[in-house]
Every structure is written in structure tokens, then in C-alpha cells.
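Hi, here's the filled form for the chain we discussed.

Project: internal
Contact: R.S.
Residues: 111
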Amino acid sequence: MRTDMVPSGHGATITVFCRGYPGPLKASASTVAYVITEPCIGTKDAACVEVCPVDCIHTDDNAPQYYINPDECIDCGACEPVCPVSAIFPEDAVPEEWNHFVESNSGFYKN
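And the returned structure, exactly as it came back:
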């Protein structure tokens, strides 16, 4: 739940303040996005959507799962522990057999 976004300086850094989170969250060009993987397919539980402070998790009626927009994800990790099927991983920690989900998450937003 986004409550306030404040640009920090002239770079790509954004500071996000959200209720229930102990401090500001920062995103920059060097952050690693989270990725939703295979266990979400067919489940589509929206717990991750509800806790995302920047509203970067989406789906549509035709999609088999939720997707995290890598350009909007601030790497706060709020989504990972609430996923009931443990489908969410930092991009650099996605299990090898699910590496193709890195591209499918970003590909969802290229349309």
C-alpha cells in the first residue's frame, strides 16, 4: 500500500514511506527485482499484491499467475514471506529450474 513517494536528488533513487513498514524503502537502478515463479500458477493468491508498497504486482484474467514489474519493484521483500506457496524469490536467488520466470515476469510488462 503506497502512502507517499518522495524523489531523492536527481538520480534514479526514490524513497517510499508506507504504513506498517519501519522506515523508508529505497529503490535505485541497482536493486534486484523479485520474481514470481511456478508455484503461483493456478493459485494466484493476492496476498503479495496487498502488501506491496509500490503496487508493482499485477495479473489479468488470461494470465496463469501474478507478475512483478522489475522496473517498479523496490526490492523491499514484503511480498516474499506472505506468499502461501513460496513462489517469490529475489531475482538472483530464483531456483535454476525456474530461471525462465525472470524473463516471463518482465515480459508480461512489455505488451
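Let me know if anything looks off before we file it.
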